[in-house]
Specification:
With 209 residues, the chain is an alpha/beta fold. The protein contains six helices and 15 strands. It is globular and about 65 Å long. The relative contact order is 0.17. It binds 1-O-pyrophosphono-5-O-phosphono-alpha-D-ribofuranose and uracil (URA).
């Protein structure tokens, strides 16, 4: 699969397995989502541009590299994307955070938008859209379409678990958007839940069911 980056790091795989276990508590689940997001942030930001600066170490003058100031915005899809924000901000403390509220209509499975608040300078930023689950791909695709309509040029999509059809849908609608995920599972069930997946990510994060 082109433009899909699957994280096979043992720490990430271990934590994803703990998240899948239905006995994992809400508190543990929330911690795991945050930890995995932080571990993934390292690789998702690999292509951030650097520039050379001159500094004085205690020993000598040196030319050395720092981030070139490319600005990043994290855009979690509400609700479940919220669980990934803190982990990402640990590594990207200067990032701004926008929010897009979408839920899947249980009958049509189409995404319904109910909230949007983005940083004022969103068009100048590299956007990382966050959502733990990429199932049919409807929510992710709608969120990216929405951002592009607002003039955003550079978008990455980061999730924890994807279904093959979701990956295909997001690629079909937005071939320019790379997908970063920790696992690509087998399939969707009749309710468009990922199998084996981890259940409803929002409910597990916030203890609503
Ligand atoms: C979940 C999940 C994604 C979406 C994925 O949200 O967090 O946003 O489903 O499904 P899709 O790829 O088929 O669109 P949900 O709609 O359950 O809303 P919630 O986060 O408010 O629970
Ligand atoms: N949303 C979830 O939270 N889980 C799934 O398996 C599919 C969509």
């Amino acid at each position: 699969m082109e433009n899909v980056f699957i994280f096979d790091h043992p720490l990430i795989q271990h934590k994803i397995s703990l998240m899948r276990d239905k006995r994992t508590t809400t508190k543990e689940f929330r911690e795991l989502v945050s930890e995995v997001s932080m571990l993934m942030a390292y690789e998702v930001t690999r292509d951030l541009p650097l520039k050379e600066i001159e500094i004085e170490t205690p020993v000598a003058m040196a030319m050395t590299k720092v981030l070139a100031g490319k600005k990043v915005a994290l855009v979690p899809i509400l609700r479940a994307g919220l669980g990934m924000v803190d982990g990402m901000l640990n590594l990207l403390p200067m990032a701004k955070v926008g929010h897009i509220g979408l839920y899947r209509d249980p009958k049509t499975l189409d995404p319904v938008e109910y909230y949007c608040k983005l940083p004022e300078d969103v068009t100048e930023r590299e956007i990382i859209v966050l959502d733990p689950m990429l199932a049919t791909g409807g929510s992710a695709s709608a969120a990216v379409t929405f951002l592009k309509k607002r003039g955003v040029a550079s978008v990455k999509f980061m999730c924890l678990i994807a279904a093959p059809v979701g990956v295909q849908r997001l690629h079909r609608d937005h071939p320019d958007v790379p997908i970063f995920c920790a696992a690509v599972d087998e399939r969707l069930n009749d309710h468009a839940y990922i199998v084996p997946g981890l259940g409803d990510a929002g409910d597990r994060l916030f203890g609503t069911r």
